[in-house]
Amino acid sequence: MNRRELIVASGGIAATALSGCLGLGSGNADVPAQQSSPTVEERTGQTVIVSNTGEVQGEPDLAILDVGVEASGDSAGAVRSELATRSEELRTALLEFGLDEDAVTTSRFHISDRVDRRRMEEEGVRPDSPEAEEYVYYEGTHAFSVEVAAIDDVGGVIDAAVDGGADRVGRVTFTLSDERRTELREEALRKAIQGARTEAEAIADEVGTSIAETTVVDASDGRVSPVHREVAFEAAATATETAGDGAATGVHPGDVTVTADVRIQYRMA
User: Fold this and answer.
1) Do the domain assignments include residue 240?
2) N or C: which end of the chain has fewer CB within 10 A?
3) What is the pLDDT of residues 214-260, one digit of tens each?
4) InterPro entries of this UniProt entry (predicted)?
């Protein structure tokens, strides 16, 4: 949404016009007042401030997948051991697909205890009884953040993760590399600045003046809106099985939106 303000300081145009008409008396009523024209300093109080947003869209060139393995057992040590083995198998499968080692990083690891309260209720065991300890078990997750630079490889990476033992394939985020993000932001900034200038000129024309110069530019705000796709594990596995060997799961991205906000102050002539 565009926002504009017209600021006239005391001592601006209105005050200048009066001084031009009244002049400065010398104390002698018979001496005519000297006419004076507004100086640049007197007219700098009139400014216009315009806020504008530029928006551009572009195809993503980076995808980030959330995949992981899960385990449960009677002790934290047993869960940790299983997670270590299965997560290494998953990571190996992703690297064998062709991903770089620094593209597969741990995003989350946790092990916590749980109580099987449903089973306790069914068997009539009270939570504060000594037998309650027998119903405690442990669950753990080791999740990876997987960066895929080639968007066409996303489906194949999902299949590789499933084949490598992944228990969960979650969100896929389609976004931009740093280089592409910078390129689109510059384009959005140009659109925002051009739009602000056009509006400022329209305002100046409406009040009978023109834009003299730009005095302040604030372009610190902006954002990138990635595209998120939820990938259910069952859907990925089913797609692979029905498509036949060698066929990859299909995940279709949309365009990423980049916006840049500017707030510009202009001095009017």
Assistant:
1) no
2) N
3) 999 999 888 988 888 776 554 334 444 434 455 567 777 889 999 99
4) 26kDa_periplasmic_antigen, SIMPL/DUF541
Q: Are strands 168-175 and 46-58 parallel, antiparallel or unpaired?
A: unpaired
Averaged confidence pLDDT in the chain: 80
pTM: 0.69
The number of beta carbons lying within 10 Å of the beta carbon of residue 250 is 11
Q: What are phi and psi of 251, to 5 degrees?
A: -130, 125
Relative to beta strand 62-73, strand 256-268 is: unpaired
Kindly state the tokens that stand for 34: 């000297």
What ranges in 131-232 are assigned the alpha helix state H? 154-163, 178-206
Interatomic CA distance for residues 194 and 187, integer angstroms = 11
Per-residue model confidence (pLDDT) at position 138: 94
Phi-psi region of 158 (alpha: psi -120 to 50; beta: other; left: phi over 0): alpha
Residue 173 has which token pair? 């985020």
The Cα–Cα gap between 232 and 235 comes to 5
Report if residue 92 sits inside a domain.
yes
The domain in which residue 194 lies consists of 3-56+187-223+260-268
